[in-house]
Amino acid sequence: MPSDLVPSNPASLTTPGTLKSSDHHEAEDPGRYSENWYRWYVLFMLTGLYTFNFVDRQLLVILQEPIKADMGLTDTQLGLLSGFAFAVIYVVVGIPIARFADKGNRRNIVTVALVVWSGMTAISGFAQNYLQLLLARIGVAVGEAGGSPPSHSIISDIFKKEERATALSVYSTGINFGSLIGLLAGGWIAQYMDWRYAFFAVGIPGIFYAIVLRLTVREPPRGFAEKITASKDGPSVWEVAKVLLSRPTFRHMALASGLHAFIGYGAANFAPSFYVRVHGMEIGPIGTWLAAAGITGAIGTFLGGYLTDKLMLRDNRWYLWVPAISTIITLPIYMIIYNTGNVYLALTLQFVTALTFSMYLAPNLALAHSLVGLRMRAMSSAVLFFVLNIIGMGIGPVAVGWVSDQLQPTFGNESIRYSLMSIVFIFNIWCVFHYWMAGRTVDEDLALAPP
């Protein structure tokens, strides 16, 4: 029997709203979670937290061109700023935070994390050179590392398995709404004011949101949805990683997620640069178009989770097939975007790619949580995000920037077009291969998972 679960006899099971006395230190007023409205309120608050997370990230994306002009940066430096340097800190710090979240109060962790990354976002506006801005973004990464794994763990504790992908998809729409706000606000502020003001404008509200979250959200009991009581101490980082890496399904799914994110971060981070350089657009309208596409992205994110919850009741392979099929659909649309000379056709098709390419995250998170036990959930998110963010957020933007720099002497401003086109084509195909491989073993690996 897995070490993170108490034997499931009647005496050891909890009913909604009750906890063993040893767990009272970690869960406050668990009875509230027996009320459906409160579970959805908590999900709403955590989605708002994730929205702030991506407001801060996408703000830097839309501000890349004015920052580049102001500080005299290369595309590779831009890729490092928004990609590798951020991702390394994010995933390294995320592991110990996730370990603590599997043992301690997750509500408190996400509250402190939000204050840290919002404050560091505001501080980014004071940067006078590349090193100062890099250090400020590292501070943002430290804060954001404490956001998602604890939130994922809370959500999986308060929603049943058959609702979990849908709930995680609602949470994941924070990516899209955060991108919408960051791109829209950042684009217009940068066009009519100094780019530094944009960092102040989006950083400070996050601190006030953290106060509301701290006062209104309670720590839920572990295993609330399954009515299973978790033991006090969770497994070690190595034990969780060992369980996950022993599953072929997780190995292939994690690689597929990383490659998916590689394309997503690489394409998204250089989308404003593409429209400025290739189509001669101004940054304000670009931010508006890309922000609007975030609405269809939110729909796609929700559909990915919702469809998975419905279809996986027939076949567990839909955990992998939903993201695989959506990835296949996206490829030819990306090729049209990067090849057409009609800027409005390209911008309109961004709404379609935002829809289809956003359908991968919730199914992968739900499957990762289904492969492990109660006190492994935050860590399973951290391990998945380690792979996803190192490959995707870490290497994706740097790769696009580096290829663009190499092609620049030959193609000039068009180099960003050919960089994006080649990387999207190659990595889409590679990504689908790993989803297909993961689907071959998913039934066996789920059968090995704790109840």
UniProtKB/TrEMBL annotation:
<dbReference type="InterPro" id="IPR020846">
    <property type="entry name" value="MFS_dom"/>
</dbReference>
<dbReference type="Pfam" id="PF07690">
    <property type="entry name" value="MFS_1"/>
</dbReference>
<feature type="transmembrane region" description="Helical">
    <location>
        <begin position="168"/>
        <end position="189"/>
    </location>
</feature>
<dbReference type="InterPro" id="IPR044770">
    <property type="entry name" value="MFS_spinster-like"/>
</dbReference>
<feature type="transmembrane region" description="Helical">
    <location>
        <begin position="416"/>
        <end position="436"/>
    </location>
</feature>
<dbReference type="InterPro" id="IPR011701">
    <property type="entry name" value="MFS"/>
</dbReference>
<feature type="transmembrane region" description="Helical">
    <location>
        <begin position="383"/>
        <end position="404"/>
    </location>
</feature>
<dbReference type="GO" id="GO:0022857">
    <property type="term" value="F:transmembrane transporter activity"/>
</dbReference>
<feature type="transmembrane region" description="Helical">
    <location>
        <begin position="195"/>
        <end position="217"/>
    </location>
</feature>
<dbReference type="GO" id="GO:0016020">
    <property type="term" value="C:membrane"/>
</dbReference>
<feature type="compositionally biased region" description="Polar residues">
    <location>
        <begin position="9"/>
        <end position="20"/>
    </location>
</feature>
<feature type="compositionally biased region" description="Basic and acidic residues">
    <location>
        <begin position="21"/>
        <end position="30"/>
    </location>
</feature>
<feature type="domain" description="Major facilitator superfamily (MFS) profile">
    <location>
        <begin position="42"/>
        <end position="440"/>
    </location>
</feature>
<feature type="transmembrane region" description="Helical">
    <location>
        <begin position="286"/>
        <end position="306"/>
    </location>
</feature>
<keyword id="KW-0472">Membrane</keyword>
<keyword id="KW-1133">Transmembrane helix</keyword>
<feature type="transmembrane region" description="Helical">
    <location>
        <begin position="37"/>
        <end position="55"/>
    </location>
</feature>
<keyword id="KW-0812">Transmembrane</keyword>
<feature type="transmembrane region" description="Helical">
    <location>
        <begin position="318"/>
        <end position="337"/>
    </location>
</feature>
<feature type="transmembrane region" description="Helical">
    <location>
        <begin position="76"/>
        <end position="97"/>
    </location>
</feature>
<feature type="transmembrane region" description="Helical">
    <location>
        <begin position="109"/>
        <end position="127"/>
    </location>
</feature>
<keyword id="KW-0813">Transport</keyword>
<protein>
    <submittedName>
        <fullName>Major facilitator superfamily transporter</fullName>
    </submittedName>
</protein>
<feature type="region of interest" description="Disordered">
    <location>
        <begin position="1"/>
        <end position="30"/>
    </location>
</feature>
<feature type="transmembrane region" description="Helical">
    <location>
        <begin position="254"/>
        <end position="274"/>
    </location>
</feature>
<dbReference type="InterPro" id="IPR036259">
    <property type="entry name" value="MFS_trans_sf"/>
</dbReference>
